[in-house]
Structures are given as C-alpha cells and as structure tokens.
Batch of 3 targets.
Target 1
Amino acid sequence: MLRKVYEDKDRQEDAIRVITLDWTIVRPTVLNDKPARSHIKAVPDLSGVHGGSIARPYVAEFVVHQLTRYVAAQSTGDYIPLAGCCKTLWLLG
C-alpha cells in the first residue's frame, strides 16, 4: 500500500537534489492534533525509529524558525544553511 507513496517521495527528492540552490526537505512523521509537547527531534534518517507522530504546531514552528534564521542571516551577509544544507530531515515529536 505504501510502496507507491515511498516511490513518489523518492522521485520528489531526486528532482530536488539536482537543484543548485540550498534546500532542506522537512518530512514529519505521522501528523496528529495533540498539543505540542516540550521537545522536537529532527533526524536525517529513520534508522532505529519505530512509529511515532508529531503535533502539527511543532512542524509549523520548526519550519518558521528555520526560515526566520535563514532570512536573518541573509540580511546580515552571514551564511546559515537551513537546518544543514541539502538533506532531508524527519521530524519526531
């Protein structure tokens, strides 16, 4: 059932990898409607992770925080890649 979903994910990432700009793909685990808890974890792969979900507000907060840091750095001439350049990050709550 999920085979096509993962094949599509792989095609999306392959298309982005050839872009010469800095990029970061943020992929949440299963989204839930629970209130945000006290921590969030961004990992480059899901090795050793079994299940899990993350509150929607966490995902939004993570993306806004990363973009805010990036824009602020660009305005001062500093270079800060978004959560580490050119990778996929999985968000765990």
Target 2
Amino acid sequence: MTTEEKSEWIRQLKNSVDDLSSYLTITPLPKDAIDIRWRLEVEKMALAFLTDEPAAFPDGWRLVPVEPTVEMINAAQSSTAWDKVEFWDGFYDDKAAYQAMLAAAAAP
C-alpha cells in the first residue's frame, strides 16, 4: 500500500467513523443500531491499525501471551498460591497464581 493509498483509507475511515457516530445519536435508535455499533467498532480498530495507534483495552485488562512463558510459570509457582496447598484437600489459590503470572508477563 502506498503512502497516498494509506492516507486515503485513513481519511475515508475517519469520515465513516464520524458518520456512524452521528447516526447512533438518533433517538430512538434505529433497528439496525446494533449492526452499526459493530461496524463502528471494526472501523475504529482498522483506523487504529492504520494510524499505528495501540488498541485500547478495557480497564483491568491486559494483553498477555496465549501460552504462559517460563517466567510466568515460575512466578505462579513461587507465589503465595502454593502457601495454601494442602495435600489432603488439594486447595490451591488460583487467583494468586494468576496475578503472579500477569505480573511476570512481558509487555508487548
């Protein structure tokens, strides 16, 4: 894709995002509002991709590897999660282990 083509895509997406956002301010909302909201989100993601803006994650969310890394597994095993392990009931603090793994996950 040439620089000019990319600029044109960005321009068109910005216009479309503005138009769709305006459309969703209509009261009452049209029957196709759900489809329009979905399209708006897709176009926002495409615009973010083309403008090299990082995708936004909801508060409390974080991008992590699909498979845990060695560092993440080591963090889980050395976390306080194992302090609660009782051989007779098999209790394990999953939340503590998960939090330790997230803390050890490398930032993308």
Target 3
Amino acid sequence: MSGGTDEAPNGRTANGAGAGGGGAGRGTGRGRGTDREAEVRRLLDGRHPAVPAGLAAGAAARGIRLLRRRRILRRLAWTLLFAAVVAFAVWAALVQPWEVPPSRIAPPLEGW
C-alpha cells in the first residue's frame, strides 16, 4: 500500500479501478458507464418477459428438420461422388487413355 491511495488487498483502488488507475469512468460517477450499468441492473432485476409456450417444442422440431435435411444432402453428395467414380472407372476401362494412340502419319513398320 504505497503512494497514499486507498488500495484494497485485491489490488483495486477505492473507485474500482485496477492497479493502472483510470478505470475509464467506471465507478467514479462520471460518464455514461454508471448510467448504463444501472440500467442493465434494473432490467436484469426486473420481471423477465414470458417465453411463448411452444417455443422449446418448435425449436426442437426445427432442429430435427435441419438435421434430417443435412443427412439427406450428405447422402446425396456421397451417392453422386460414388456414381462419378464408377462412371470414371468405366470410361477409363473402355477408352484406356493411358495407351499411346497409333500414329496416322506413316504406316506401321512390320516385317523388318
């Protein structure tokens, strides 16, 4: 406890600021910080608004619909990917793109 300030054991001064001083208007009675804090406290201490009766059930039903839609889209994507792989494999087996095509410039040399 140095410098003659009213410092609490937790390192805060009497106005609620930390060891750095200032406090940006909190707890000092100046600025709009205390007005906002008081308004928030008043709102939180007051009566809370009523929740509609079917809100939880509606949210659960919406969640189930979203999960079902995602599952269907995921299955569709995997099915399309599988079909594309099969189509590519069939095309590659028929066309055999790794083989060099015969030359059309000169006739093949046979019997040398």
